[in-house]
Design goal:
By secondary structure, the protein is an all-alpha fold. It has two helices and no strands.
Length: about 55
């Protein structure tokens, strides 16, 4: 099972590197979207906690 996880991790790393090398603009756009999603989620949690305190 551990070997399968390592192989899967290597495949993901190779895919990410391939994507970055072949189309850096698209990779940058995906990273930007990912960070915006995390930021929006954090804002939502912050607003939720603020409402709980009030």
């Amino acid at each position: 099972m551990v070997q399968a996880k390592k192989v899967a991790l290597y495949i993901v790393v190779v895919f990410v590197l391939y994507t970055i090398i072949t189309s850096p603009d698209k990779a940058a756009e995906l990273v930007r979207i990912w960070f915006e999603g995390i930021s929006d989620a954090a804002k939502g949690v912050g607003e939720f906690m603020t409402q709980l305190v009030n």
